[in-house]
Amino acid sequence: MSTKYSFHLQSQDRQRELPHKIILGRQDTETTVHVVLKFLGYLIFFRERLQIEARLETVSIPFVPDLIQLDYELRPKLWIECGECGVSKLHKLAVKASEAEIWIVKRSPAAAQHLFEAMAREELRRGRYQIIGLDAAMVEEMCGLLAPRNELLWVSGTWDPPNLQFDFNGLWFDAPFTVLRY
Fold first, then answer.
1. Which of 38, 41, 105, 156 is exposed most, by the fewest CB atoms within 10 A?
2. pLDDT digit string, tens, across residues 130-149
3. CB 100 within 8 Å of CB 78
């Protein structure tokens, strides 16, 4: 692991009791954008037992998820990929984690649409995937603000309409996001 980022979290949303602190590592092959997307994915999907880059105890799934929630029998219930993710991997994931809800978090609506079209070209199974396209300007600005120690005040995150409101390292964000269902 080449770099670690700590995030001190506060939440004003009574529905989302975030932990006080999380730490995300950035591997040598990962970009800052990937770290920001993982962080935002964690916030958007936060729930009890959501894990970051958990190694699975099964040989049948050879992938390490960016974010995952396991059921009580340690099977994937929610699988979240952030950033670049190949269509071939998504196809295998739908088969190997057949009971999991699969989400992909992309840096922009255009990137989400591009993935959607690639999935259609490869004829992936319908009804298995959801793609989030975040606000590109928000992601870029957060990458510029990312430091070894970070502060976040979460205000709200809604699905209808899809929107995020939070303060990250002293800068206020109020940004919509796009949800595509494949």
1. 156
2. 999 999 999 999 999 999 99
3. yes
